[in-house]
Design a protein that fits this description.
four-stranded antiparallel beta sheet, single chain, Alpha-Beta Plaits, seven-stranded mixed beta sheet, Ribosomal Protein S5, domain 2, 307 residues, alpha+beta
Length: 307
């Protein structure tokens, strides 16, 4: 462990995964941040939570950020700390499809890695994070920022970060009880070859459209035949909100991650608020409360501040 290094702080961005056809391989970091401060000392693991989930997230070693931190100590062959305090400031809505669990895992991994003197590089941390999450798209975007492409090759993950210009998004975050596990359980175990080819052909065009800021192209290729229809059926008011975003001028619409949030891509920053409100109003008309958010993509991924 670094001599004298007793504390550090980590900032991790929200993410949106899949981006239509890019199932489990595309992720985009968003300019909405969770923060965690790690301090060695005291007795046991104590987690303090402010903001989203403050009334229901665990405040001990069962907290996901704490679990990830302790995993790093174990992987490094170190005894767990006698005392560890983690102060979490949570801005990313929980169970929303915006990578809240990924931010918790990444924060824990990076914080503990820093306290131990950085025994692991980010590629190894990505492997550990993907093991926690079960899929790598959100954690890759959270770690590296920007638009990330991630695929598995043998026992390792291959990633490519792509910087994208001024991507503005509108989000509607419905107040629904939703879990990634539930959303994944409803997906088919086999798909038709034509549907697989449909997604394969569109995924690189989604990347190119975001890279070049070609929103006309994005609107033509952010279609999917592998997961979104099944997931949309699980989101009350989801179809109405999707259509409302299109009517309000969104260039493209998708389910954010596994849902229940919807994300709409807009060509002008000034349109993000109105499109987000249109989606939220459509949810409300179906009896579902939803928060509108206007965000931008983040070129930066998770960052660490020592001391």
């Amino acid at each position: 462990m670094n001599e004298g290094l007793q504390s550090c702080a980590v900032r991790v961005p929200a993410t949106t995964g899949n981006l239509g056809p890019g199932f489990d391989c595309l992720g985009l970091a968003l300019d909405l941040w969770n923060e965690a401060r790690f301090v060695l000392g005291g007795e046991g693991v104590v987690v303090d939570v402010h903001g989203e989930g403050a009334d229901r997230l665990p405040r001990d070693a069962e907290n996901l950020t704490a679990q990830a931190a302790l995993r790093v100590f174990a992987e490094a062959g170190k005894a767990p700390p006698a005392g560890l305090r983690i102060d979490c400031r949570v801005s990313v809505p929980l169970a929303s499809g915006l990578g809240s669990s990924s931010t918790a895992v990444v924060a824990g991994l990076l914080g503990a890695n820093e306290l131990l003197g950085r025994p692991f590089g980010r590629d190894k941390l990505l492997e550990m994070a993907a093991d926690f999450e079960g899929h790598p798209d959100n954690v890759a975007a959270a770690l590296f920022g920007g638009l990330t492409i991630v695929v598995r090759k043998g026992d390792r993950l291959l990633t490519k970060k792509i910087l994208v210009p001024d991507v503005h998004v509108a989000l509607a975050v419905p107040d629904l009880s939703f879990s990634t596990r539930t959303a994944r359980a409803g997906l088919p175990t086999e798909v038709a070859m034509t549907d697989a080819v449909f997604n394969l052909g569109r995924t690189p065009l989604v990347v190119e459209a975001l890279r070049t800021g070609d929103f006309e192209l994005l609107g033509q290729v952010m279609d999917d035949r592998l997961h979104q229809a099944n997931r949309l059926a699980l989101i009350p008011g989801g179809r109405a909100a999707w259509l409302a975003a299109q009517r309000a001028g969104a260039a493209a619409v998708a389910i954010s991650g596994s849902g229940p949030s919807l994300i709409a891509f807009v060509s002008l920053a000034s349109d993000a608020g109105s499109v987000a409100r249109a989606m939220s109003d459509a949810f409300a008309a179906e009896g579902v409360a939803a928060r509108p958010l206007g965000l931008t993509a983040s070129a930066a991924g998770a960052t660490v501040v020592r001391g």
